[in-house]
């Protein structure tokens, strides 16, 4: 898959503070790439550097094969940015605001494009209202509308669902999913379940350093601590000794119609086939056996706590 | 074309809020009171003098030039009120990012904001057009003096606006930007006064040249020379240049 964005050994220094330190990761075409990190980790600074709003102190950012600089206007027009605080003119109507953004981006058919974006983001009912009089959810939608109005193929969304009510969150997520069919999206969020739901690739940043980056499945595999199995046996049955399969630890939970055993093998080798045969040969009523992946939240906490 | 888009948006922003109307109304009211007072003082002066001496008091100097000098004083408060929000507000609301994400250069934003502020000041001055009509009515038909006076005000307004733009680009706080503009304009006046008080001829001349008052007075009296054109052009250009550099500071 093509790499649309390559962040190569990028650092950003503010007076007396290193906000981002030797960050390297890439974003592949057509993906929704989750960008995770606690507050102050360097997410927004990195996103602003990618958008060309901040120059890098060291390293290089390549977007669509070209080096990003704050004065590379043609390249910046290929990036749509929704910052954490959307840049909205509160004294303008929604239509005027979006038309204005389209004009300064030299969109050819401003009216048609504005109508299209208003329709796409369901802003028709508020099109003649002042942005300052809109609810947080609508303002966020207008912010997203300004990011897509010039049809940039790469979008950077900095915590787009932050502070929205559940209904707006669901709607916005659906819209982002729809957008991802045509665009590549770099998406930051504090809600890890949201990232798991939306993203196929992630990057974790903490204290300005990249802690992990890649395909979500690969990251799950990478941060798996040995083989974690969930085994279900018939009611009243106990787990026999499994030491022939390697060193392990198990915990037992009785519940409902089966006995649950949470078994962690130190060795990562998938032994489910032999293990299920063994349990059956031991006369156990084997009801379930499945591999458990660590939650993204566990990985995230491990990554961020380890360094704190 | 880009400057036109930016200019149009700023003009819409002025006139979509009560600020522009309040400023225009207040400015017309205060300048009207000043004009009325000058007329009354002039007519009282004429009546108090013996008939032989009455021609010694020039209507142009006592009323017209004083009126425009007073309007220049009003600019000290009105122009910072207009310019203080231009960049401060955008910085506070992070809306400048919209420009930096688009193919917009800093100088285009500075030009558009400067021109929109100047348009508002000129529309304030348009309200004072009633004074020349009254002056014409009382028999003074010296249009060249009136033209020079308006030109002097327009040049001073442009210089103050460029100074205000720079001050506004320095802070996110409108009040700080406004106060800084007022102090800077006062400083520009005081340089001339400092020159007048200095006994060293060369130093005094430099001070007088650097201060805005001497240039304003020359243009007001219809004596505009090359040095005044160079002064206003270089002052406005330097302030705009500094504003562009100040906006570019986000890259430091």
Write structural notes for this entry.
The complex is a heterodimer of chains A (308) and B (252). Chain A has helices at 43-50, 73-76, 94-104, 110-120, 136-148, 166-179, 192-198, 216-222, 272-281, 296-307; strands spanning 3-14, 17-28, 32-36, 58-63, 66-67, 79-82, 154-158, 184-188, 201-206, 209-215, 227-234, 248-255, 258-265, 286-291. Chain A contains ten helices and 14 strands. Chain A has two domains: 3-221, Rossmann fold (3-Layer(aba) Sandwich); 225-292, Alpha-Beta Plaits, CATH 3.30.70. In chain A, strands 6-7-8-3-9-10 form a six-stranded mixed β-sheet, sandwiched between helices. Chain A has a four-stranded antiparallel β-sheet with strand order 2-1-4-5, with helices on one face. In chain A, strands 12-13-11-14 form a four-stranded antiparallel β-sheet, covered by helices on one side. Chain A has 308 residues and is α/β, with parallel strands linked by helices. In chain A, a hairpin with a 2-residue loop joins strand 12 (248-255) and strand 13 (258-265). Chain B has 252 residues and is mostly helical. The model of chain B has no long low-confidence stretch (mean pLDDT 88). The A-B interface holds A 51-55, 70, 73-74, 76-77, 79, 81, 83, 85, 87-92, 96, 100-101, 103-106, 146, 150 and B 2, 5-6, 9, 12-13, 16-17, 93-104, 250-251.
